[in-house]
Amino acid sequence: MKISFKSQSDAQIQAFIVDENGDLPAAAAALDEESGGLLSEALAAERFSGKLAQQAIVVMPKSVEARRVVLIGGGKPGKRDTKAYERIGAELFKSQSMSGFKSLALTVEDADGAASAAAGAKLAAYRFDTYFTKLKADQKPSVKTFTVVTEDEKAAKAAFKPMDADTDGTYLARDLMNEPPNVLYPESFAARVKELEAEGLEVEILGEEEMTELGMGGLLGVGQGSVRESKLAIMKWMGGKTGDAPVCLVGKGVCFDTGGISLKPGPSMEDMKGDMGGAAAVTGTLLALAKRKAKANVIGLIGLVENMPDGNAIRPGDILTSMSGQTIEVQNTDAEGRLVLCDVLWYAQETFKPQAVVDLATLTGAIVISLGHDNAGLFSNSDEIAEGLTAAGLTSGETVWRLPMGDSYDSLLKSKFADMRNIGGRAAGSITAAQFLKRFIKEGTNWAHLDIAGVAWKEGAKAAADPSWPSGFGPRLLSQWIADKYEG
Ligand code: BES
Ligand code: MN
Ligand code: ZN
Questions:
Q1: Measuring from atom 22 of ligand 1, which residue has the nearest CA?
Q2: Domain end among 88, 116, 150
C-alpha cells in the first residue's frame, strides 16, 4: 500500500474525524451539503457518539465525486494523542481495505496526527500471503493508496519518516516470525540478515567452527541435536560518534523449539517457530535504525539455533561449559533460551565493551501467566535503563512492566554438580530465568532483559494495528528508546 500526504485528494473513499462534540470538519460539511445532508442524517440515525474509532459509513449519490464517506470517531475534543491517531488510521484501514475501492483518504489537520494515522494504517495493512496459492481477488485488499489530507504536508511527511522506518522494522520482524521453520532456520535466517548490508548495516556471521573456538558450549549444546548448523549473526549500525561505546541488543533466535529431549507437549507446538521472536525484534530494530539513519552506535547480536530431540541432542544431566567458563547442569532441555543467550551476552560484552546491553527473548511460559499479552516482562540491574525502557514503551505503545530480582531467587539455581542448573523449579519461573542471565552480566555492565513470550504473538481479539499472527514487538520500542537516550 502506498502512503502519501497531500493537501487534497480525489480518493474514492473520503474519511473524516468527528469528535464527541459532533461537529463535521469543514470538508465534510461541504460534502454534507453536496449530498443533501446525507452525512448529518447518518450521524443522527446511527447513534454516532464520536467515541474513538467508531465509524459511520455513508454511500454518496452519483452527483458527488467521492463514492463513499467514512466518519470516524475522534474521541473527546482536544484529547487526541499519538496513540489515538494511530488507532484511527488502523481501524479505518481495517474497515475499508476489502471494500472494493482502490483509494482511501483521511483528513487530519494536525501534521503529527497525520503521520501517526499513517503509521497506524501501515501497521494494519501488513499481510503475509506468501504461502497461499489460491487467493481470489476478493480475498485480497482492494485499497492500494492511503492519502492523508493535511494542511502542512511537508511537516507531516517529515514526522512520518522515522515512523515509516520503525514500522519497516516491525514488518521485517513479523515476516521473519511468520516464515515456517523449514524455510527459516539458523542458516537461512543468517542469510536474511546478511541481505541487510544493502541497507547500510555491517553484518558478520559466525558458524559452529568459530563458536567452538570461542568456547560457546551453551549455544552449541542447544544446537547439537539439530541437523542445521547453529549461527551467530552480528549486525552493526554505527551512526553515532566514533569512539562512543555501543549499545548491544541481543536476541534469542531459537528457530524452532521442540523442547529437545524434554519434549514439549503436542498442542500448539507449531507456535514454537516463533521462538526466534527476540532475534526478529533485534533484526527489525537494526533495520529501523539504518532506515532512519539513527545517530547512535548499536550492535545487534542474535544466537540462531534449532532445539531438537536427537541421538546427539543434549540430555538432562549434561553439564555444559559456557564461554564465560561457568558450568551449567542441564536439568531441562526445554530451558534452552538462556543457554543460547548466556554465550551471546558474554561475547557481546567481551567483544564490544558496550555502555548498555538489552536482550529480548521469548524466554518463559511463566511470563504469559504473570503479565498476559499486554506487557513484556522487564528485568534490569539499572534503574535508569528500566525507566528509559518503560517510558519508551508508553510512547511507542509496546509496553513493558518491571519485575523484581534478588539473591533469594538466584539461590534457586544452585546445582549439586555444577556452578548452576538451567532451571529454578516451579516458583517465579520468569525471574529465575532472568537471574540465570544475570550471572553472565559483568560487574558494571548496564543490562536489561525483556521476556517477550507473552507479547510476540497472541490468539483471539487483537488491535487493528496487529493484524497478523506475530505482533512484531520490539523495533518500535527499541528505536524509541535509542532515540530518547542515545541520540541527544
Ligand atoms: N520458548 C519457550 C518459552 C515460551 C513459552 C515462549 C510459550 C512462548 C510461549 C522456552 O524455551 C521454554 O520452553 N521455557 C520453559 C522453561 C522451563 C522448562 C523452566 C517454560 O516456560 O516452560
Ligand atoms: Mn524451550
Ligand atoms: Zn524456547
A1: 365
A2: 150
